[in-house]
Design goal:
Elements: H1 3-14, H2 38-42, H3 56-59, E1 70-78, E2 88-98, E3 103-120, E4 127-145, E5 150-162, E6 176-188, E7 194-195, E8 200-201, E9 206-215, E10 233-244, E11 248-259, E12 263-268, E13 271-276, H4 279-285, H5 292-297, E14 300-310, E15 316-325, E16 334-344, E17 347-355, E18 371-379
Antiparallel strand pairs: 1-2, 1-18, 2-3, 3-4, 4-5, 5-6, 6-9, 7-8, 9-10, 10-11, 11-14, 12-13, 14-15, 15-16, 16-17, 17-18
Length: about 400
Amino acid sequence: MKIFFRLMLVSLVLVGSNIATYGQGEAAVPFLLLAPDSRAGGVGESGTGLADNGAAIFWNPAGIAFLTGTEISITHSNWLPQFNLDLFYDYLTFRHYMEDLNGSVTASITYMNFGEFARTGPDSPEIIGTFRSFDAALTLGYATKLSQDWGLGFNFRLIHSRLSDQPTANEQGKGVATSVSFDVGAMWRPSELVLPLIDENIGNKFSIGVNLSNLGPKIYYIDRAQADPIPTNFRLGFAYKILDDEYNSLIYTLDFSKLLVSKSLQIKDGDTTSISDEWYQAIFTAWGDKPLSEELRDIVTSMGFEYWYGQPGDFLFALRAGYFYEDPSYGNRKFLTFGAGIRYDIYGFDFSYITTSVFKGGENHPLSDTLRFSVLIGWGGVPDKLRGLPRGV
């Protein structure tokens, strides 16, 4: 039984990865693409332009360059509830500003549990043992301000995938793989920006972020000849504070993302094999290996609104809503998100909810009814220029 190959297929289903007509989105360890936190999960899984809490390690590490103080947060989600399986996702983050380094050091642990599996013999359905399967990643990073308006962030990541613990029958390899990757992000958050047509200063209300994540070598479970690319991803995000008064704040976020994995089919001696570019090639070739109209359809769009009521230092309450869209030919994930959050003193709590039931055929979609819960503690931060709230709180 090809146990760990079946588990690789399960892991692809987990995020609705782009197993499309064109096959470009096929990548290993797709758990690295999961939106990890409840706050961004509530605004349509968009956070690259805002990136003003610990989860910016995922969305855009450059956003942490504008943060001070310390924050610890953890997110938990029972994943794909429609499957009724023992699947869950945990995400732990830490960030700390260090004046001596003129920036913040960061860390996160990502863990995706696939549950327990039964191992059977090669010629018999008799169960001969069980094993647990999971994917995990440890990320370490640093973020600093290049100037008052520009931030830069870097991450290094160790990836470990354990789909099976030992070979079965005539299989080669144990179904265990390890690799590394890194991220680089930039953010522009102008303190002064005048729009010429309306002569309005939107400084401290607007930000743009770019993040190139999961840059690294292919990962393999058996041998290098059968290696698969990891999900290198490009994100461009915007955030704009529409409303800001003594008690009310409303922010709009918009993200565009594209998976930078380029694959092609090669036919030799009657056999068809799939060939994928190395990551340093794919970040260029993945933009031009199809007609422009198809390249544009391959871009995922997500957006949302976040409303806060209250004053910093007092009790704060947030409501969130968003929309996520992926073209039908490249995964066909479409869903609405909702969320809420509270902040009191140094403590915070957020949750988010995904629904696909408003779309045709979405009632039984694996992502429908997915909930995320996040708890955070943040202290020592200075007021947030964009939200008017303490950073990370």
